[in-house]
Structure formats: C-alpha cells, structure tokens
Design a protein that fits this description.
Radius of gyration: 19 Å
Number of helices: 10
Largest sheet: none
Number of strands: 0
Oligomer: single chain
Distance between the termini: 32 Å
C-alpha cells in the first residue's frame, strides 16, 4: 500500500512541476470555467421562470448550474488531462516509462488523474461553493453533506480519468478522446439541461456517463433534484459505472503493455 501511495504522490508532484508552475496558469483555470458558467446563466436569464423542474427564479437557476458546472469541471479536467499528458509524454519520449517502470500500472494511471484534478479544479469548486451558499442551497444545517459529495466527485472523476489515461496509452492520436467526450458529456449529463427534458434516446445515452449519476446524487442530497428521482437507483448506477471503469482501466493497461512487448522497441514512439 505504501508503494502505491508513493506512486500516486510522484505523479501528482510531476504534474505540478510540469504544468502548474505559475500563478497565471491557476488564474486561467479559474477564469475560463467561470466565463462558461456565466455564458449559460445569462443565456437562460431572459426567459420566464415557470417553476418547471423546480427552477422558479434566478437563485434556483444558479444552484442548478453551480452543481452542474462544479461536477462537470472535475470530469472534463480528466478528459483534457488524459489527452494533454499522453501527448506531452509521447512528444517528450517518456511515455514508455509506463511500461518500463516496476511501479504499479493502475497507481500511475490514477496518479495522473488525481494530480490534474486537485490542481485544476479547486479554485472553480470554491467559486461554485460560494454560489451554493449564496443561493441557500448549502446552509449551516446541511453543511455536513459537503464532504460527502466532494469525496464522491473526487473518487468518481479520478476513476474516470484513470480509464481515459489508459485509453490514451493505446492511441497514437489521443486527441480523438477530446472529440468523443467533450460535447456529449456537457450536453447529455444534466450539466446545463435537466436530463428529463431529453428524448428517450438521449436519456439512454446519458446513462453511459458517470457524471450523470454524480449530479443526480448531489442534487438529491441538496434538495434541488428533478421530480421523481430516487437516491438508490442513482447510487447503484454510479457504483456499476465505477466498477466498469476500474475493470476497463485494468484490462486496457494489461492489453497495451502486452501489445508493446510484442510490437514495440525500447523507444516506442
């Protein structure tokens, strides 16, 4: 266990030294998500609030978008990091370390994800928490729920990021990961639009993403969920997705290493 924790720590430190080395980087990581949040908020604000799905005024809208964008930013940083790190390591000639090192392969994949998650989203999450306090979604009487859904986001998005990092080991053109997941994850998971508004085919597509279940659980425990939702189905769906992600990550990592042992050289790319 100690060795696994050391690998996780090493990946986090490596990413901090490589990508997050100036205050301007952190400022940009706060600025762009806030601009995206405000874009959607001001797009919806001119329309009349009818109470549909519990959104009766601008504060309800802020709470809905605050939870959505906080969770989405955690998961999207994983997509972006999986692509960015694989490209940088491929260009820099260090990608083969993932196969040559005696370190635990899964610990390396999850360390890459965790390093980006902690350093990319903490400022924007603070902004979203401020929004939730402002809208009275988070209050002193339910503040104990805050660690629960933060841990939920941390675990689920780390497993998601580890799976994407493993997939990027297999592909020479990992930019396709960005194309496959960016718009569908933003559109179908309930980040900006309630899932119940979608047609049946889109609702089924939303079930593929663990972010959908995370948002349902967070909004349920904070009391801003869509009518008719229940905690147990969302929790079971998330646990199933997490199990599948771990299995896929382990299988892909083993498959990639076997493939490179058969077809690769000491310097693979």
């Amino acid at each position: 266990m100690r060795k696994i924790l050391l690998v996780l720590k090493a990946e986090v430190v490596k990413q901090k030294q490589h990508d997050y080395h100036s205050y301007f980087v952190y400022f940009s990581l706060l600025l762009w998500p806030i601009l995206g949040f405000l874009e959607v908020y001001f797009t919806y604000q001119p329309f009349t609030f009818t109470g549909y799905l519990g959104i009766t005024d601008s504060r309800d809208l802020l709470a809905f978008l605050g939870t959505g964008y906080m969770a989405y930013t955690c998961f999207w940083s994983m997509v972006q990091n999986a692509w960015s790190m694989s490209w940088q390591e491929r260009e820099g000639g260090t990608l083969e370390v993932a196969f040559l090192t005696p370190a635990n392969r899964l610990a390396m994949m999850y360390g890459k994800a965790l390093g980006a998650l902690i350093q990319e989203v903490w400022m924007f999450c603070c902004f979203c928490l401020f929004v939730l306090f402002y809208t009275d979604t988070l209050r002193w009487d339910n503040l104990f729920l805050l660690p629960v859904f933060l841990v939920l986001l941390l675990v689920a998005s780390t497993l998601w990021g580890g799976m994407l990092s493993a997939l990027c080991l297999y592909s020479r053109d990992s930019s396709m990961i960005m194309d496959i997941f960016e718009t569908p994850m933003n559109l179908f998971t309930g980040t900006r639009i309630p899932v119940s508004c979608f047609p049946t085919w889109a609702k089924l597509l939303s079930l593929v993403f663990p972010l959908t279940y995370c948002l349902q659980i967070i909004r349920l425990v904070l009391g801003i969920a869509e009518p008719g939702q229940r905690l147990l189905p969302s929790l079971l769906g998330l646990l199933l997705c997490m199990g599948i992600m771990v299995a896929v990550t382990a299988w892909v990592t083993i498959r990639v290493e076997k493939h490179n042992r058969e077809t690769g050289e000491l310097n693979f790319y």
